[in-house]
Amino acid sequence: MSEIEKGRQARAGATIVPAFQEKTFHCWLCAVLSPQMWRQLNNGYRNTKAWQCTCDNCGAISYWLNPGAADLPARMISPLRGGAPPPHTDMPPDVREEYEEASAALAISPRSAGALLRLALQKLMPHVGESGKNLNEDIASLVKKGLDPDVQKALDALRVIGNNAVHPLELDLRDDTETVGALFGVLNFIVEERVARPKKLEALYGALPEAARAAIEKRDAK
């Protein structure tokens, strides 16, 4: 992906997942789309298969292993985040638990990470007024309640790709860190739209003078 395309996708809200020797991506620590500085490590005599990557924005360091074999792609080995962005600050604790486990699994098993993210999404449903028993039915219920079409697409994308992680149909996610990595940003987007934003609006409305709120309620009662 070109740097121009990365910028375009980032402005549209996409997460650019860390990848070996890429010049820019969203940092695993500060979550900023930042230039990255790479250097190959040596043991004093010769270069090794290990690389160090440093974020130009915050200085966060990650270590990567590049086996140099076609069937063994380079991967982040420390920290074990697999390049996933940090969870949204308003993500509920039980959802965050699955998110963090998925993040740790991404570099080792994208398929496992996808399945865990689907579970995280299902655990999110009770926090947005649904049962959490059947994800497809919960999304349908939200649509009937006037769910924003963009949020619906995000929900279904995560649901379908997560399903494929458990029951492979048309997608093979075993080595697809790019597809699964994008789902972390999708889940953060859903939390922002369905948890964080309503909370901010409720706090804003609650800060209005009591007389103003009474007048609004009287108006709406008509």
Order of helices and strands: HEEEEEHHHHHH
Number of helices: 7
The dominant shape is elongated
Oligomerization: single chain
Helix/strand/pairing category: alpha+beta
Helix content: 40-55%
Number of E-state strands: 5
- Summed over residues and divided by their number, the pLDDT gives a mean of 85
Stretches where pLDDT is under 50 for at least 5 consecutive residues are: none
Kindly estimate the percentage of residues that lie in beta strands according to DSSP: 5-15%
Distance between the termini: 55 Å
Give Rg in angstroms. 21 Å
Record the strand order, biggest sheet: 1-2-3-4-5
Major sheet details: 5 strands, antiparallel
Characterize the structure shown.
Helices cover 49% and strands 14% of the residues. The chain has seven helices and five strands; from the N terminus they run αβββββαααααα. A five-stranded antiparallel sheet has the order 1-2-3-4-5. A hairpin with a 5-residue loop joins β3 and β4. α2 runs antiparallel to α3, α3 crosses α5 and α5 runs antiparallel to α6.
What attributes does this structure have?
49% helix; single chain; 222 residues; five-stranded antiparallel β-sheet; alpha+beta; 14% strand; elongated
How would you briefly describe this protein structure?
The chain has 222 residues and is α+β, with helices and mostly antiparallel strands. It has helices at residues 3-11, 93-106, 110-124, 135-144, 149-166, 177-206, 210-221, and strands spanning 24-26, 33-42, 47-55, 61-65, 75-78.
